[in-house]
Protein-glutamate methylesterase/protein-glutamine glutaminase (Undibacterium arcticum), 358 residues
Amino acid sequence: MKIKVLIVDDSALIRSVMTEIIGSQPDMEVVGAAPDPIVARELIKRTNPDVLTLDVEMPKMDGLDFLEKLMRLRPMPVLMVSSLTERGSEITMRALELGAVDFVTKPKISIQHGMLEYTEMIADKIRSAAKARIRARPHATTDAARAPGEQLPPMRNPLASSEKLIMVGASTGGTEAIKQFLMQMPSDCPGILITQHMPEGFTRSFARRLDSLCKISVNEAEGGERILPGHAYIAPGHSHLLLTRSGANYVTQLDQGPAVNRHRPSVDVLFRSAAVAAGKNAVGVILTGMGKDGALGMLEMKNAGAYNFAQDEASCVVFGMPREAIAVGATDEVAPLNELPGKVMAHLATHGSRALRV
């Protein structure tokens, strides 16, 4: 069975280009193209698509309003089509909170040529979206957005907080998973390095959003920062993020080398650097995502003495990356997303000081 895709975009050019891209794939077909959400509602009823591509800014009904209603009344996989602007990135972050699976960006210039260059990426994201677990969303409220899990108590172990580190990798569905993970972290947790597959320009909005919600400080990594307890550093969309040492300190490093597993930033790059620089003082966490990025890097972490966690299948949007890490024997524990922060902190509380004395 082919993946049925409905395109919703007010631009006739984008609708045409997306139709061409999707139609060129042997395993998918376009079942309709709507210029606005009003038309889209009727086409959804008529065509019952597997995946919806949705422009974030449209006439008649805002894309976010439409998405919020859709995820309450008729939840389905939605791939946002966003502009590469600050406003576009902020709207896209909100769309992911409302339940969109992932997003692609419109090129700033030469839209038709640029979108056609994205063919493989768009097709992969549609395939990933079609496999996603979609759950109905309650009516969004500020309180609900701020309370995905109970705040964990402080560590009260300065040595473990300063010497231990947490490495996190995610892809499809990861923005919400990372938010839930970080919002439970106490203000004195060990430093956290994060690689989330996301293009340049969007990671800064993502970090700002998390910083406004979490007890810990969350920033887009700049490279050369000393890693501090109670701080999280997110790989910028243009570079790999690595962990290095400078004397007694752990420090961030950025690298614009080639993509690894077709990604820059790559989770494997982060995890491999943690294996070398931190060894048994690192804890690895692999969250929801399509593909295998992070699996072999996490195995290197484990072989170097790190203790690793994976998100379980039931709580993942896409169980690709955790499955691959589990399959190669890289993980020590598998748990639902809402339990992972507590399990990570419990492990650090019981093993932190002992590991440091070895």
